[in-house]
Amino acid sequence: MKDYLKQDEWNIIEEGFYRKHNKISESIFSIGNGRMGQRANFEEKFTGETMLGSYVAGVYYPDKTRVGWWKNGYPEYFAKVLNAANWIGIDIEIDGEVFNLAECEVDNFRRVLNMKEGYLERTFKAKLKSGNEVKVEAKRFCSIVDDEVGAISYKISVLNFSGGINISPYVDFDVKNEDANYDEKFWVEVDKYVEPKGGYVLAETKKTAFQVCTGMRFQILKNGDSADDNAGVFSREKYISSDVKIEVKDGDEITILKYCSNLSSENHPKEDLVKNTQGAVNQAFAKGFNTMLEEQRIAWLKKWEQSDIIIEGDIAAQQGIRFNIFHLNQTYSGEDARLNIGPKGFTGEKYGGSTYWDTEAYCIPFYLATSDQKVSRNLLMYRYKQLDKAIENAVKLGFKEGAALYPMVTMNGEECHNEWEITFEEIHRNGAIAYGIYDYVRHTGDKEYLIDFGTEVLIAIARFWTQRVHFSERRNKYVMHGVTGPNEYENNVNNNWYTNFIASWCLKYTVGAIMYMKEIAPEKWTALEGKINFYEYVEMGEWEKIAENIYLPHDEKLDVFVQHDGFLDKELIKTKDLPAEDQPLNQNWSWDRILRSCFIKQADVLQGLYFFEDLFDEDTHRRNFEFYEPMTVHESSLSPCVHSILAAKLGMKEKAYEMYLRTARLDLDDYNNDTEDGLHITSMAGTWMAVVKGFGGMRVLGEQLILNPSLPNEWKSFSFKILFRKSLLQVIIRKEKVEIKNLSSKNLHLEIYKEHYDIPAKSSAHFNNEIG
Ligand code: BGC
Predict the structure, then answer these.
(1) pLDDT of 156
(2) Is any atom of ligand 1 closer than 6 Å to the C-beta of 638?
(3) Residue 148 annotated to the active site
(4) Is the N or the C terminus of the chain less surrounded, counting Cβ atoms within 10 Å?
(5) What is the share, in percent, of the chain residues with pLDDT greater than 90?
């Protein structure tokens, strides 16, 4: 756990240059806009600890799979989000000496991520080996208004010398991925052009042939006057730069304004890329840095108006939740159904930038309640569009007749994960994808989605479960062998309760969806039946039989659901009895020891209780929580939020709060010692859920919005907004009272503390806080 960042409500602040934590800071201070993202690398040269990261959404490379023992069915490649052109770079020489922060004495270093207005700022004083001193003030952002554009303002003040400064803004496509399997570079130059104050490099990915054109245009001022008239140019393979020499003396101020754009062939015809890139940088240049920054401020204010959570009385918690919301909004804007949310977003290479079950299980609730419904609809459409590939994927594994197995990890719909116990066995992801549809429909009421797209996906998933179970004569039940549940610290188990339960739920939900579609849209149903060769009486009958007769392990004596067939034969130890130096287990224990132990990586049975809580009574929740929580090590970032929500529901306020802090400040405090790889973006949505669903007690059941708010003892108050079926409401929770403001122009009906109320448009209602 690290504690080097200052606490502040709206900013993330590093004061003093923590060189050894620089890669962690590079992740934390990342900026992005849903279309491109940039780690907090420095503009000037830096040879210290760093991982360069500049990412363009949707552009990936299928790196040849590298495993020791090839298993039939493995995907040929692992898709990787690509480190793309370095567009922020500005090389500087001061009186002949390269300005490299790793070799300078650095004073008054301050790095600030301004989350309210959406920019990154860095100021410091540096003393070079020559003794020459400069002060630097740098600011940059990825525009959320023009989402293919980034802008930088970099100001150098000369403190104690006279001489020459050489400034070379550049674009460098000669970059690599740190995680390349064969140390290969993935970009090939197609074209480049450089002129005294700008230019571009157009590059293409090997194999996938995506093209990205990165352009720049800049302006350099000395004490406010133009100083870039004598710019020279330089280029080499995949690289362009301009070169400006300026004579300076004490007190002079040099300002570099650099405008860049990253356009990809995903969004522009290849033949127009260069022209459009030039158009984009010229437009940014014409607007100017200050106008763009002002637009950015206004656009971010709008985002915050809808998605902010205000916590009074606890700065650490306030900063934590805003940090999470900020990064979620930087990662996915929901405008493009081809894009999704990688576990690290645009902040690192780990997990390849691909899509996991995290999206449906964790991210959708956040976007449902804080953005227009088209945002989460696009996340569902992403899977709909990949249905054919999910069917192909199932065929490769021996399934047939339209059964679909969605990939555990994917970029384009194809599976690209290659650890057998996950690729072949972590099939519960299919359940999460069905659950995402259910969650979307109940929150938005958009049943048309179910008719036009959802039911087709559900049927393909139901077909998969039907073929994946088998009938056990001994048990007289349907069973499912050889799976890995959400708890990846056990593999190849039989009858994982969570997987069996979600399979049975999927089958029932699909039957319901079909009945609804038949009744409401019979013609569309007939068309769908034909398209997918559906045999209603055979298939639905079988689904119902399986759903009702699936084996769900349960222990009579303990009266808990059993994680899988062998779980209770393990030595059942509590995490509190684990020596501190053994944790995290995945960094200290051998893998076989982890597998044999009872320790649970992340919510598993409890994930099921969280998803389907209305199907179980409170005592069942409590017994299972009290049994499983003490054995859970939360070594997946996705875990503490689920435990926090369940603990809040069960009135275990301290536990709920402990788990909340662990999720909210996971990256800021580098809790799992891995923030340098990138931020845990998908679990950030879990943090939001821990506040809104946990402390706020927000649920949607049927057509009903439900709230059961309680206030953590450490907070004076907290408030959040939610969009529910086109109504916007704000919930403010104080110790004694809960206030609900209906901000929309229609009547709002809701249930709070088990009573039903109507709150007229544009008005507020007050309730006693019944939980405390
Ligand atoms: C978790 C998975 C998750 C993945 C990506 C793993 O550590 O166990 O459930 O999908 O990370 O976030």
Answers:
(1) 98
(2) yes
(3) no
(4) N
(5) 95
